[in-house]
Design a protein that fits this description.
There is one protein chain. This protein has 77 residues and is an all-alpha fold. It has a domain at 33-77. The chain has two helices and no strands. It starts with a helix and ends with a helix.
Length: 77
């Protein structure tokens, strides 16, 4: 009976210790949602994060260019 109570106390203490640890913080996802799947290129030997960053940069530049064109069109009307 003594052994069972000691084991249960140790078990409860270890479970409580494991539960009190905070999970590591999640890294913020800074990329575009539509390019998230490009990171899977890691599975076939490419640097998926670098590919995603490059595509994100190209899409951002395209968006900026389109916004500039839209602004110029509105000014000319």
């Amino acid at each position: 009976m003594k052994i069972m109570s000691k084991i249960s106390v140790i078990l409860v203490a270890s479970v409580m210790a494991a539960c009190s640890k905070e999970p590591p913080p999640l890294k913020p996802d800074t990329g575009r949602p539509e390019t998230r799947s490009l990171e899977a290129a890691d599975a076939i030997g490419y640097n998926g994060k670098a590919i995603r960053k490059k595509v994100d940069g190209a899409l951002d530049a395209n968006d900026a260019h389109n916004a500039q064109l839209e602004k110029e069109m509105q000014q000319n009307q």
